[in-house]
Every structure is written in C-alpha cells, then in structure tokens.
C-alpha cells in the first residue's frame, strides 16, 4: 500500500470515528450539557488517535515485508 493510500485510509477512519461526537453534540448542546460534549470529545479523540496509530503500524511497508 502506498503512503498516500495509507494516509487517505487513516484520515477517513479519523473522520468516521468523530461521527458519534457530532451526534452527541447535536443532542446535548441545545440542552446545555457542555460537560457531556467535553467527555465525548475526549473519548473520541483518544479513539481516533489509537485508530490512526494502529492503521499506521498495520499498513506500514516494513510490516508487510516482514509477513
């Protein structure tokens, strides 16, 4: 997999992981539940960083040649 294709896949997954945050924000912000949005943002950010790192390692050329 080329570096560009891997980066596109990582960015797509990064965006997809943030979709639940958008749903929580849409439901919670009109009610003034800012703490809930903050917690959801933190959890989403951690998940997105983990997905980014795992995909980067799993799809790296060094790993593919070792297999």
**Cα radius of gyration in angstroms:** 16 Å
Helicity, as a percent range: over 70%
Q: How many separate domains?
A: 1
Overall mean pLDDT stands at: 87
Q: Provide a count of the helices.
A: 4
Uncertain regions spanning at least 5 consecutive residues: none
Instruction: Categorize the overall geometry.
Output: elongated
Distance between the termini: 14 Å
Query: What is the element string, with H for helices and E for strands?
Result: HHHH
Please state the structural category.
mainly alpha
Question: Approximately what portion of the residues adopt beta-strand conformation?
Answer: under 5%
**Main sheet summary:** none
What's the number of extended β-strand segments?
0
Summarize the structure in words.
The mean pLDDT is 87. The protein has 67 residues and is mainly α. The protein has one domain. Helix 1 packs antiparallel against helix 3 and helix 2 runs antiparallel to helix 3. 84% of the residues lie in helices and 0% in strands. The protein contains four helices and no strands.
List the helices and strands and how they pair.
Blueprint: H1 3-17, H2 19-28, H3 34-58, H4 61-66
Helix pairs in contact: 1-3, 2-3
Short recap of the structure:
The chain has 67 residues and is mostly helical. It has four helices and no strands.
What tags apply to this protein structure?
67 residues, mainly alpha, transmembrane helix, transmembrane, membrane
